[in-house]
Amino acid sequence: MNAENFGCSERLVTAAYVRQGAQGRRAHELRLRALLEQGKCPEDGWDESTIELFLHELAIMDSNNFLGNCGVGEREGRVASGLVARRHYRLIHGIGRSGDISAVQPKAAGSSLLNKLTNSVVLDIIKLAGVRTVTNCFVVPMATGMSLTLCFLTLRHKRPKAKYIIWPRIDQKSCFKSMITAGFEPVVIENVLEGDELRTDIEAVEAKIKALGAENILCVHSTTSCFAPRVPDRLEELAVICANYDIPHIVNNAYGVQSSKCMHLIQQGARVGRIDAFVQSLDKNFMVPVGGAIIAGFNESFVQEISKMYPGRASASPSLDVLITLLSLGASGYKQLLKERKEMFSYLSSELKKLADNHSERLLDTPHNPISLAMSLKNLDENNDAAVTHLGSMLFTRQVSGARVVPCGSVQTVNNYTFKGFMSHANDYPCAYLNAASAIGIKKQDVDVFLKRLDKCLKTSRKEAKKEKSVNEISNSNTGTEQLED
Length: 486
Description:
Distance between the termini: 101 Å
Radius of gyration: 27 Å
Helix content: 40-55%
């Protein structure tokens, strides 16, 4: 409805009522105009009717929704199922063109506008979260691992002789496989134990660079968000080393956007040294379905190079999901979620410590990890090695998801590289432990129910361990008696 149509409407409905309706629509349009002019996340979230109006306006700008459109190409935005079309708000063409995921599509102005606005709004949120000097970013329809691979492949053209990636150890397969998939050889730097924390061995990183030669190293691949007792890498020191040796630096910031500490580390690393790009997950930071990531950096041209490395067009679903989410929340709503997450971390930490004390365990001291916590499982581990993994099974069957139990001495081979103590980020961490995290969206009820169920599982495990010990003692006693009789 435009001014002309509203004028025509006055012949059918009382003019005063029509003008009131026009003013109501004008309120929606002012929000759309502000978004288009500023390219920033609105301070206050939009209602669903405004968001849907906006998406429908974008959709009718795409050629597949033109009245009377005649498509004779191989890809004309045809969708067999109306349900599928409605699921995507009839934004069918995806984003980008065959040579660049950020390029504008001539026959999909609405989808192209969606892509540009999403990247602009996400950039605004990254700045709001703490990395204020970031210059460019884009949403890519791949999860974190493959997005890291895309960064490594882009660097290959800049450093054709390089074949190694320096990687402070983090026991997550996707991180490791992202380097293998790109065709490079990971050089694993073992962490050093400082108190309970596993921290970056800066001296070992620099020694390995000297041994291999800077020209043979593609980049340093560091990590922020991680499972305790591993803590974020020493990003500032690594960034300085990268600057001194002229080596690129890629940061895996998978679920770090929600943490002011992780974002501060990236900001400081870029200020004092070198960080070329940092990658973060959409689902872990913005509560949307799995399948998207954000690649961001401080050099606009390098981020553009990464986007051009993506082959072909891409799905618009991750972009659509995160744009709808951020428009719904608004900047104030997202900041409130960050605040609540931090409060829940403190609550989880204090309550988990009480529970650990009650079971003669302890909350590991990991002050440099702002998201994940770890509680020792020494008593279980001493009674029975299998008891640790059994605790994890007990929690899962009682509908506790996300908690990780890490036994001592687990060995796993990933792409021909054998990790000792796999999942613990070290060859021989001193004790078995359980992980729990305070991630964005967590509620007090989640913490309370988790602690209640964990308490019951630990009590059950203790009873089972005592029972098994008694059975073994009786069995051993009977065996000794039989030997004496013989």
